[in-house]
Recover the amino acids of this structure.
């Protein structure tokens, strides 16, 4: 039986850890400002009215919502890097020895990794919502709830890759490539309607597409280019469930089988 | 009473290397069992299997009633481990490390506050409680590691070289704290390379070599098990004859007698405290006055060397 107290204790540790990476947090905040204040504004001025209308009236709003989701993604995957730091210092063995079940450990780490990313991106999200202007609070709350699950799923995904690869260099390279593919083959930066058919197929099942479109729906952006919210929410739940399960499975098979090495 | 740790045919293979080879061992409730062995004997691998950090290739172990391979979650609730290498991140401070450990072990906020303070003061880390462990010496980090056990006070405490790198005063303090824990009902499995530590702390000592258990008994019995392990050195007023030497060798439990000089003898025997009166009586009968007498028991070093076939220097290599 899963104890919520133990899950939260594990999650809380990861949240505290994240706050100590001051350099990373400052750099990510600068990246966000550059994306919104430079790239977003400039690219927005390049698009014709028909393009703006296709994405709900303003490409800037569409893009800003997408950037929030990429921020959530890129900060939630950071838990994988934590796992390598912990492996170097032997902390993984310690975590495997404490009176917490593997399910509680992986669930706690997924939640901790997701929640800390949500807390960090929260102020930026509020700023973007202020720029877009929220039309329905209920709709927004439903979207935020799904985004919570999305960040937990991304953390689970990162944990799964980290424990599968067991090499920080390879993980770093893989995350760079994954980031390039998963962000660009999604609707975070542009709608599916403008993608070639063979790219669109992948974007349709990409969890970033589900998250970005749900956030846009929650923020009140109305466009035919946005994935239906129920379908997107279902996709996020499936993504979260799959990687939490895989994370638990791999913790048991890959780590306990013979330790980290 | 059933043993609190029961190890049954426990085996761990890493590729072609057999780190632990069909190990069988029982640890009784409320005892300190010292696990000795040279580097690479399989001590740490055994402890990691008991704490469910790694899975055995074959065999199993029971912690209380729980099988570590089938009920690891339940087994972990009874165990606490202080690792050989302190498991700390460079950004951590002792207060946060211990407070989190106490929390994950289920202590309430009030208990945590009290126990974390107590252990930090006991181990002289109170003034450094908010400093990053990055700035700590090896001995200080080791104290943070062992502190986890003293807060948790598990039913089964597993400590891997608990006082390595710690100064003499600190060592004695930790030994006393481990004894207190044992007296309060914890069972302690102590893996160490320090034979003196095993000798002063352990109720029983198990010696491992190349993944196998060679022997397990009380330190006194192990020392007595070495043939001629006790040595009595006697200096006489006058020289001894060959005939008297032969008679001396015939005394029960005397294993060998060496006449280093005519009046200086080295007698190898078992249970010296029982045989010594007979030896002094023998010299009185022979009208040989004893000028000086010195008795030495075998140490665990001798026991270790006897069972592993290695000197301490060889074992450390």
């Amino acid at each position: 039986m899963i104890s919520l107290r133990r899950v939260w204790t594990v999650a809380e540790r990861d949240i505290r850890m994240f706050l100590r990476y001051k350099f990373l947090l400052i750099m990510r905040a600068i990246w966000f400002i550059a994306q919104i204040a430079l790239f977003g504004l400039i690219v927005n001025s390049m698009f014709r009215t028909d393009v703006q209308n296709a994405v709900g009236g303003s490409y800037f709003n569409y893009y800003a919502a997408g950037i929030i989701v990429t921020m959530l993604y890129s900060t939630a995957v950071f838990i994988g890097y934590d796992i390598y730091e912990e492996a170097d210092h032997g902390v993984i063995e310690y975590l495997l020895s404490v009176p917490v079940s593997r399910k509680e450990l992986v669930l706690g780490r997924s939640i901790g990794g997701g929640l800390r990313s949500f807390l960090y991106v929260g102020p930026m999200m509020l700023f973007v919502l202020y720029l877009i202007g929220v039309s329905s609070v209920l709709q927004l709350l439903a979207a935020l709830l799904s985004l919570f699950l999305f960040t937990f799923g991304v953390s689970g995904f990162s944990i799964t890759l980290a424990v599968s690869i067991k090499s920080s260099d390879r993980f770093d390279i893989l995350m760079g490539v994954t980031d390039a593919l998963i962000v660009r083959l999604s609707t975070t930066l542009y709608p599916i309607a403008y993608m070639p058919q063979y790219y669109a197929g992948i974007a349709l099942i990409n969890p970033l597409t589900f998250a970005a479109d749900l956030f846009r729906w929650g923020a009140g952006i109305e466009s035919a280019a946005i994935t239906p919210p129920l379908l997107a929410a279902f996709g996020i739940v499936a993504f979260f469930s799959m990687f939490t399960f895989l994370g638990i499975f791999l913790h048991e098979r890959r780590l306990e089988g013979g330790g980290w090495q | 009473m059933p043993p609190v740790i029961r190890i049954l045919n426990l085996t761990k293979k890493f590729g072609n290397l057999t780190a632990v080879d069909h190990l069988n061992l029982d640890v009784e409730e409320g005892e300190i069992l010292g696990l000795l062995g040279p580097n690479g004997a399989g001590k740490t691998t055994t402890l990691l299997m008991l704490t469910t950090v790694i899975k055995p290739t074959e065999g199993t172990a029971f912690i209380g009633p729980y099988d570590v391979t089938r009920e690891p979650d339940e087994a972990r609730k009874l165990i606490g481990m202080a690792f050989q290498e302190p498991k700390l991140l460079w950004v951590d401070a002792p207060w946060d490390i211990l407070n989190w450990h106490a929390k994950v072990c289920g202590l309430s906020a009030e208990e945590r506050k009290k126990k974390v303070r107590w252990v930090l003061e006991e181990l002289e880390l109170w003034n450094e409680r908010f400093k990053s462990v990055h700035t700590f010496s090896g001995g200080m980090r080791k104290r943070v590691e062992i502190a986890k056990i003293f807060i948790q006070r598990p039913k089964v405490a597993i400590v891997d070289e608990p006082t390595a790198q710690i100064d003499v005063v600190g060592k004695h303090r930790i030994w006393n704290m481990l004894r207190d824990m044992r007296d309060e009902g914890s069972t302690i499995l102590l893996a160490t390379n320090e034979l003196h530590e095993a000798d002063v702390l352990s109720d029983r000592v198990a010696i491992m070599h190349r993944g196998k258990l060679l022997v397990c008994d009380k330190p006194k019995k192990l020392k007595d098990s070495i043939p001629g392990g006790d040595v009595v050195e006697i200096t006489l007023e006058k020289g001894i004859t060959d005939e008297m030497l032969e008679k001396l060798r015939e005394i029960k439990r005397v294993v060998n007698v060496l006449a280093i000089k005519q009046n200086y003898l080295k007698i190898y025997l078992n249970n010296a405290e029982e045989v010594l009166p007979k030896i002094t009586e023998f010299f009185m009968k022979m009208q040989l006055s004893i000028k000086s007498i010195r008795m030495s028991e075998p140490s665990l070093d001798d026991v270790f060397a006897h069972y592993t076939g290695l000197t301490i220097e060889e074992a450390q290599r």
